Amino acid sequence: MWEILLHSLRKGVVTAKPAAPLPHDLAPAPRDSAGPIELLGEALRSEIHRLFGRSMKLRHVDCGSCNGCESELQALLNPFYDLQRFGLDFVASPRHADALIVTGPPALHLEEALRLTDEATPRPRLVIAVGDCACSGGFCAGSFATRLGVHEVVPVDVRIPGCPPRPEEITRGLLKALRK
Q1: Are 87 and 54 in contact (CB under 8 A)?
Q2: Which terminus of the chain is less hemmed in, N or C, by CB atoms within 10 Å?
Q3: Which ranges constitute the DSSP H helices of the chain?
Q4: Beta bridge partners of 126
Q5: Are 97 and 125 in contact (CB under 8 A)?
Q6: Which of the 8 DSSP states describes residue 144?
Q7: CATH top-level class of 37-179
Q8: Closest by alpha carbon to 38, among 76, 78, 86, 72?
Q9: How far apart are alpha carbons 38 and 45 in whole angstroms?
Q10: Rounded-to-integer distance, Cα 178 and Cα 180, Å
């Protein structure tokens, strides 16, 4: 190991030649300033401001999902989508939430937790079912351990189908919930 260190100190920093520019067909496409996410986000911001006068807080409730929908929900906060800039944020307590986002087929042992979370959320509030499992039971439909959707446990305002739904679809569903 000492030999490698001494060799690199004697030789100095060796860097590769700068890479050749990418061919035009491989170069990353320039992002439009008014792409679909920005248009959806601006519409979402105006609805949030109209209804709340501030940001909208979401409480996520996992009722036994496979975590596919959670990955897409988490993508809403990454630098590409960054829905926080439009006034949307997730909170840890249902007492601070304006809406519940529920994923997964409601497992029988999680029904009580979902009901308690729903009761702890201040009224008026929205309940949004995200993913096929939350909307209709998904691939777990007919199982002895789950319900056929969140609507069997708590009233649902908006359903966002997909397995898992893309972040754009979740954003459209949130916009639909706010306009309802």
Answers
A1: yes
A2: N
A3: 2-11, 36-52, 68-75, 111-120, 132-136, 167-179
A4: 99
A5: yes
A6: T
A7: alpha beta
A8: 86
A9: 10
A10: 6
